[in-house]
Design brief:
By secondary structure, this protein is an alpha/beta fold. It is built from 12 helices and 7 strands.
């Protein structure tokens, strides 16, 4: 039986709309998305074997995710860790050289702040956001892929270049999160066309995914931090079912606290050069409020 590898990959960045895009694309009849989101199969360096993310390393198990493929035009998966892993692009290319790559980018200051609260919800984070900012501003972090997952995806330019170098610009589509949430229908239509699907009749209603909120009490908090339960639910329930349960029963919507201005300024300074490099690579301005000309 011929092996069925995906022919497109949503590679990140984390907290930049990958869940939303996955959810929209899995509704399209011409697209096949697996039950398990984020298998991390090609993240050999960014995700160590003992990670709480539990990467899928077995080739047979990974390919089994796509055993249900019939006549779909596009077969994909989404693992945000692929963007920061320095070997993922080449590993993907070895098995699927014609694959289409989708990269989502978000204002790095806002992304790291969102990631901080997301990580607090699913695991013990002892440091305050201010402490994390102070710790990382002292490191030469663009050269590293290991460390706390809260900040490690922010230096985009090197990550973008590796995919452009390996796959070429025609096989890489870059989506800006702020434009995605503003007009999700347009972006999804663009992605469908990018994947080689013409005249798809699929229509969808925009939704809000991964809304900010706090666990509904100690029991919900314990569920989020229980690795065993997370792994079982990941294997048993589809991503859409897990999202519904989480957002309807485990999370209560609240306002996200405002970021301290001192932290904002430190992060703007930390990421400024990299953001300028991203603008140069993409040959465009970016709608990132933390990196407008006056900053």
């Amino acid at each position: 039986m011929e092996e069925c590898w995906p022919n497109f990959f949503i590679v990140g960045a984390p907290k930049a709309g990958t869940t939303s895009l996955f959810a929209y694309l899995e509704q399209v009849p011409e697209i096949y998305m697996p039950r398990i989101k984020e298998p991390h199969y090609f993240s050999h360096i960014a995700i160590p074997e003992n990670s709480f993310l539990k990467p899928m390393r077995d080739k047979k198990k990974y390919l089994k995710l796509f055993s249900g493929v019939k006549d779909e035009i596009a077969v994909g998966e989404a693992s945000p860790t692929y963007l920061r892993d320095p070997k993922a692009a080449k590993l993907i290319h070895e098995v699927s050289p014609d694959a289409k790559i989708i990269i989502l980018l978000r204002d790095p200051v806002e992304r790291i702040y969102s990631a901080y609260f997301s990580q607090k919800r699913i695991r013990d984070v002892n440091n305050s956001f201010h402490e994390i900012v102070l710790n990382y501003k002292q490191e030469n972090y663009p050269e590293s892929v290991k460390g706390d997952p809260i900040i490690h995806a922010e230096f985009y330019s090197k990550q973008i270049k590796q995919y452009l170098d390996v796959f070429g610009p025609k096989q890489v589509k870059i989506i800006i999160f702020e434009e995605f949430i503003k007009d999700p229908k347009k972006i999804v239509r663009d992605v469908i066309e990018f994947l080689g699907i013409k005249n798809s009749l699929h229509e969808f209603q925009p939704e809000q995914f991964n809304v900010f909120g706090e666990p509904r009490g100690p029991f919900a908090r314990s569920l989020f931090k229980n690795i065993t339960i997370k792994r079982i639910s990941k294997n048993v329930f589809s991503p859409s079912v897990r999202r519904v349960v989480t957002e309807k029963f485990l999370i209560k919507k609240t306002e996200k606290p405002k970021m301290d201005e001192e932290d904002r300024l430190l992060l703007q300074k930390l990421f400024k050069n990299d953001v300028n490099e991203v603008k140069h690579i993409l040959k465009r301005t970016l709608p990132w409020k933390n990196f407008q000309e006056e900053n």
